[in-house]
Amino acid sequence: MESNNNHSEKKELKGFYGKAKISVKILDIAIVIGIVALFAVLTFGMNHRGYTVTFDSNGGTMVEPQKKMYGDHLDPVEPPTREGYEFLYWANDIFGNNPWNIEKDVVTEPLKLYAFWQQKE
Amino acid sequence: MKKLDELKAMNPADRKRAIGDLLMNNAMFIIIAITILYIWIRVPSFLSVTSIINIMNLTAAKLPIALGVGGCIILAGTDISAGRQVGLAACIAAGLQLTVNKLFPGLAVQPIPLALLAVIVVGAVIGLVNGFCMAQFKVHPFIVTLSTQLIVYGFILMFLQFGTNGGQTLSGMSEGYRDFISGTLFKVGTAKVPMYVLYSIIITAVVWVIWNKTAFGKNMFAVGSNEDAANVSGVNVKKTIILVFMMAGILYAITGFIDAARIASVNATTGLNYEADAIAACVIGGISFVGGIGKVSGAIIGVLLLQVIFVGLNFLSVDANLLYIVKGLIILVACCIDMRKYLVRK
Questions:
Q1: pTM of structure
Q2: Run of H or E including B55
Q3: Cα B56 to chain center, whole Å?
Q4: Distance separating alpha carbons of residues B190 and B49, to the nearest angstrom
Q5: B184: which strand partners?
Q6: A69 and A98, same domain (yes or no)
Q7: What pLDDT sits at residue A18?
Q8: According to the model, what pLDDT value does residue B17 have?
Q9: Is residue A99 part of a domain?
Q10: Residue of chain B with shortest Cα separation from A10
Q11: Does residue B332 sit within a domain?
């Protein structure tokens, strides 16, 4: 089978690519560069793994952020304190609809936990 | 076997070139296979039953939008307003299904078919505008859909300001709506397969019939392949373009309708960048920007492979911000492969 394809020859594209003229050889180089870049990004990602969990204590004492892997539990957190308020719970939304159980819930993505308080009598 | 025999019969130079073409044309699948294998070795639970069901559920949720965008790509176009259209549909669906409605104070939960009809009508109208501008004025799809993207986003922001909502996230949708979408279809062990998987299968089957068994579907491929030739052959090109974009709008609307209940909270960022995932999935699956080339099965494979990669990287705890770079590079490489395939065939 004789091949009549010349990969160095520039040919015209069509459709959404417009009438750009490009050769197969240049595309091969672009594909290889793209793949190398893709693996470089993934390697960078693998070397900087982990999801940061931050705590917004809503006016209470500061709680240090934690870096966790997918499926990890959070390290025990000392409940924050706030003058005139009693700490109730942590939640992963600003409305407090989804309380976070420090011992049971696992991290599956970057997370921000908000402290919820009750005013002391 | 026939291809192997052909390969053996070639002279060494041609054989080398044929193998090179085979590797290059399938480079994306090879990369994805290597990545999946690597993730599986690092985290074996990645391919557990629960995880596979989760990947299937995510694929089902993203499939309608990919099929919509796929139609536009087959026309040698694109639709970058898809994600925002999903967001608007999600806002409208949620707005009609809130138990405590701040958008329309006093409005009770509306029947589910009415909410579905409302989003479909809105999606179809946006699709009509997109398609009409392209068909009638020959404006480039990028410009038209960029405009609609921004216009739709404006509508979303205004919609969320209605009543006393003040732009807040919409949550607290009716139980009936959430059950209709996210209720249990069946369980595999402890993993739940939700109802929307069934809807996604039905939608995919309908799209397959439209693309493959109707005159409209054949016209869509003809227009995408060569608009002038289609016109000469008696195809109503304008009508075909408009209908493809209307169908896409309806598919985005259904995606939004599903997403509102699936995620159970809707805000201005709902649907953001969904079009990028959909375009990437289509190109990976062999739906070509050259026009007139593509299969429903390609869109399914593309969405599935992308979800496998994203879930896998999530299992590896890779920074979610990096996923944008990964998606961009995947689109770039997939498009280069797409162009290469066309040029080698030419």
A1: 0.90
A2: helix B49-74
A3: 14
A4: 9
A5: B194
A6: yes
A7: 85
A8: 83
A9: yes
A10: B343
A11: yes
| Residue A91, helix vs strand vs coil | strand
- Let me know whether A63 and A100 are in one domain: yes
In a domain, A1, yes or no: no
Which pLDDT value is given to residue A3?
A: 47
Residue B158 domain-assigned? yes
Residue B207 sits in which domain range?
Answer: 48-345
Mean pLDDT computed over A45-74:
93
Nearest to B141 by CA among B63, B79, B59: B79
d(C-alpha B11, C-alpha B187), whole Å: 55
Do A58 and A108 have their domain in common? yes
Q: Which residues of chain A are within 8 Å of residue B6 when distances are taken between CB atoms?
A: 1
Task: Specify the CATH number for the domain of residue A65.
Answer: 2.60.40.4270
In a domain, B36, yes or no: no
Tens digit of each residue's pLDDT (9 = 90 or more) over B202-241:
999 999 999 999 999 999 999 999 999 999 999 999 999 9
Instruction: Determine, yes or no, domain membership for A104.
Output: yes
Contacts of A8 in chain B (CB under 8 A): none
Q: How far is CA B133 from CA A1, B127, B225, in A?
A: 48, 10, 20
Q: Taking a contact as any Cβ pair under 8 Å apart, which residues of chain B between 273 and 292 contact chain A? A: 288-292
Domain residues for the domain of A95 are 51-119
Find the chain A residues whose C-beta atoms sit closer than 8 A to any C-beta of B. 1-3, 5, 7, 11, 13-17, 22-24, 27-28, 30-31, 34-35, 37-39, 41-42, 44-46, 48-51, 68-70, 95, 97, 108-110
Residue A79 placed within a domain: yes
Mean pLDDT of A82-90: 94
Q: Which residue has the tokens 């579905």?
A: B116
Same domain (yes/no): A24, A55? no
Q: How many domains does the structure of chain B reveal?
A: 1
State whether residue B340 sits within 8 Å of chain A by CB: yes
Q: How many domains does chain A have?
A: 2
B20-26: long-range contacts at Cβ-Cβ below 8 A with a sequence spacing of 24 or more?
A: B20/A28, B21/B344, B24/A28, B24/A31, B24/B337, B24/B340, B25/B337, B25/B340, B25/B341, B25/B344
DSSP per-residue letters across B141-189? HHHHHHHHHHHHHHHHHHHTTTTTTTTPPEE-B-HHHHHHHHSEEEEET
> What pLDDT is recorded for position B55?
95
| A5 → closest Cβ in B291, B330, B344 | B344
Decide the pairing of beta strands A51-56 and A111-119: parallel
Give yes or no: residues A75 and A104 share one domain.
yes
Are A42 and B77 within 8 A, CB to CB? no
Reported as a single tens digit per residue, the pLDDT across B41-90 is 988 888 899 999 999 999 999 999 999 999 999 999 999 999 999 999 99
pLDDT at B7 over 80: no
